[in-house]
Design a protein that fits this description.
4-stranded antiparallel sheet; elongated; alpha+beta; 33% helix
Length: 335
């Protein structure tokens, strides 16, 4: 059943209202006791508070699908106009988030596939740990009901989320072995290096400018565009880090040699999001990253319904098969 409802109480991440309900005409579909909706890129700030709460309860952390980074990317990148965030609600409690976009398969059938951009290394969905199985089932049923099968993304192999997806009949099309093995790091301590961490919103704001300046030097040596040469990229980094710092999920670590900044890393939760080092200072960056445990780089993999599940008795008809059945059914009744 589809219905339009007021969104739960929310606060825009900046300049919004607190304590006033946002009246929204975004349609929701009721599936298995959950309300499911697709929100466009400009409708995300109103649900920053419940989104941040979900991130703290998630079965598997996914900083690149949290509000701070995803909403900023949607607003500042050209690809943002294609984002449709799949949201699952249990009353006023947000229990599922998956960044998706509509795409057509080889035969023209529509699918909901992960929304990915270069600056966000993963699109892992956020599922409430207390109801993850039910939330996943509702997402899949919602997509099948629309005739647009859902592709989920980037579940870390061996994680609780990966086991959940396998149990629901999905399988990945990429393996962990596809990622180059990380070289073993041997970090030599440097007596002339000093380290600092920016954590408050003001500190992070200033440290991000140091990071962007280092990136300019690194980009020149690597013969690529610096982040500040693309206004969308620079605005994404500034906005996302400012929002994440307010939610206490972001810090900027800086390495200095003789007082001058030589390397920096922007970290969201335990992930190194972006790093930069001036030419010849790779060891200083390695020393910086070795100071605390860092999550391994995400493995990009698409999780789709296994072919064996498509022909299961009782499985919903999809795509061309569903269209054929809709066409044949009236003919059968007529005879």
């Amino acid at each position: 059943m589809m219905f339009a409802s007021a969104s739960p109480l929310g606060q825009a991440s900046r300049g919004g209202t607190r304590g006033r309900p946002e009246t929204s005409a975004i349609p929701r579909v009721e599936v298995g006791g959950f309300g499911i909706e697709l929100r466009g890129p400009l409708d995300l700030d109103a649900i920053a508070a419940p989104w941040a709460a979900l991130a703290r309860r998630a079965l598997v952390p996914s900083p690149f699908a949290e509000h701070a980074l995803l909403a900023a990317a949607a607003r500042h990148l050209p690809e943002g106009r294609r984002l449709q965030t799949l949201l699952v609600w249990s009353g006023a409690r947000l229990v599922g988030v998956a960044p998706v976009t509509a795409a057509r398969g080889p035969l023209g059938a529509k699918r909901l596939v992960p929304w990915r951009v270069d600056l966000l290394p993963a699109a892992t969905p956020l599922l409430d740990a207390e109801a993850a199985g039910s939330v996943l089932d509702a997402m899949l049923r919602y997509a099948r009901g629309r005739g647009t099968p859902l592709v989920l993304a980037d579940a870390p192999l061996g994680s609780a989320l990966a086991h959940l997806l396998r149990g629901a009949g999905l399988s990945p099309n990429a393996l962990a072995q596809a990622r180059d093995a990380e070289p073993e790091r041997t970090v030599v301590p440097f007596a002339d290096l000093s380290f600092e961490n920016a954590r408050t919103a003001t500190e992070v704001r200033d440290a991000v400018e140091v990071f962007l300046a280092l990136d300019v030097e690194a980009a020149a040596a690597q013969r690529r565009l610096a982040l500040v040469q693309d206004p969308g990229h620079a605005n994404l980094v500034r906005t996302a880090t400012r929002r994440a710092a307010r939610e206490r999920t972001c810090r900027v670590a800086i390495t200095r040699r003789d007082g001058a900044a030589v390397a920096a890393a922007i970290l969201v939760r335990d992930h190194a999001w972006l790093t930069a080092a001036v030419p010849g200072e790779a060891s200083a960056l390695a020393a910086l990253l070795a100071r605390r445990p860092i999550a391994p780089p995400p493995v990009r993999n698409d999780w789709t319904l296994a072919p064996s599940a498509l022909g299961r008795p009782g499985a919903p008809a999809r795509g061309l098969l569903a269209a054929a059945r809709r066409l044949i059914a009236p003919m059968a009744r007529a005879t």
